[in-house]
Amino acid sequence: MFEPSGVAIVGVSAEGMGFGRGILLAIQQMGYAGGLYPVNPKGGTVAGLQIYESVASIPHTIDLGIIAVPAPHVPAAIEQCLYKGAAGVEILSAGFRETDTPAGIDLEKKVRGLAQGGIRVVGPNCFGIYNPRTGLTLLPGPDLSREPGPVAFISQSGGMPVDFAHVGKWRGIRFSTMVSFGNGADLRETELLDYFLHDAETGVIAMYIEGLDDGRRFFSILKQVTARKPVIICKGGMSESGMRAAMSHTASIAGASEVWKAVIRQCNAVLATDLNDICNYSLAFSMLPRARYRGISLIGGGGAIGVAAADMAAEYGMLIPELDPEIQQEINPLLPQPGSSAKNPVDVANPFVPPANLQKILVATARSRDVDIQIVVQLLYHYKSLSIQMPGRTVMDITPIHDFAEAFSSAAASTGKPVIVVLPEYKQEIEALDIAEMIRTARKLYTEKGIPVYSDVKEALRSINVISNYQSRLLTRD
């Protein structure tokens, strides 16, 4: 299902932009190289492809059926795919158990019964499957990344995986497979979690869950998975109003929030509160070594940023230790004078310290036995003021982001101590669009070198803490 050589799309119209036509065009635009076979009883052509009048009339093998017809016609479409020998189907159509009507509940029972006959079902009421390696994509995602990576995402929601895929594209998070399973008439969170445990392409698993089909089995599998791979869980429906929303969204009974929090902690999973947390933690787990991080060096920013960072680090049980005098002596000549400090936080006094100097500072601070990981805070927007004073030069021209990327990655590689970069975007007025372009380009260069980037120090510290706690509990459990 996740890497099909042939896909039948049932419910494609020759005109208009329904779900069927939309997913067909999206898969085409993603560059899917397998066979695409649109199906509609009226026949015709669409996007240069013949529309077959039925699944049975397709003269090729299909592995996956995508169903986008009105709910009452879905069981018949599943039967066609079953008889054609498809491994599975994804049902984009809504109008099932989530409607809380006898007709919708009965239709979902029929779907479940057909699944027991030898075909797997993702959905109904979902956005489907995204697999960067093959070009299979979620509705309506024609422009998601084709670069595969280690993060899998399992979601009852359809919109959240689309949003996560888009954010991941610019933040440097790369995915193995995403599955939006909606109502979960057949394939659900537990079986998918077990699948990704054994999937060699997946190193990190993130989940959005509203409710469980079998809580005891889920938590048993979860404990097995977290012993080998980190699992990030965003639980929808933690409040009373959230539970009501979850029931109308995917017909899920959410469960008590305190029970969820306790069991997630006992299983050594990571609790995320929203998509931003999922992105931050997925980035950290996919780019940073899994280790206990206690001591941090913080370089750059300004005095106030350093003080706030030290306070935040203490909240998470981490330290920003003062560097040994000999290390400070080595760093001092590399810093602008006066106004700088080599103690840790290393206050660089101004944002224009050359990349070569920053690299030497990182190498020197890494020699401290009390430093496990390094954070560089870059206020790159200040380069705009320099460009204004240099007629004919743009902020992109004068900011040495390529050299910074090389300096940070070289320092991390030579010292064995990871480097994280924080790139605040304090200037977001219309006149600062050139700064936004430069910072986005810098983020891309850094993440391509394996340097995770965060927008503020707190996000970076929380993400480091999540990895450290996961590893500590893992070692304790072992």
Strand order of the largest sheet: 8-10-9-11-12-13
At the fourth level of CATH, the homologous superfamily of the largest domain is Succinyl-CoA synthetase domains
Biggest sheet layout: 6 strands, mixed
Percent strand equals 15-25%
How far is the first residue's CA from the last residue's CA?
Answer: 35 Å
Helical proportion, percent range: 40-55%
CATH architect. name of the largest domain: 3-Layer(aba) Sandwich
Question: Which term fits the overall shape?
Answer: elongated
The name CATH uses for the topology of the largest domain is Rossmann fold
The number of distinct β-strands equals 17
Q: What structural class do you assign from the helix and strand content?
A: alpha/beta
Return the domain count: 3
Kindly provide the name of the CATH class of the largest domain.
Answer: Alpha Beta
Tell me the number of helical segments per DSSP (H or I, 4 or more residues long): 17
Pick out the low-confidence regions. Answer: none
What is the average of the pLDDT values?
94
Rg of Cα set: 25 Å
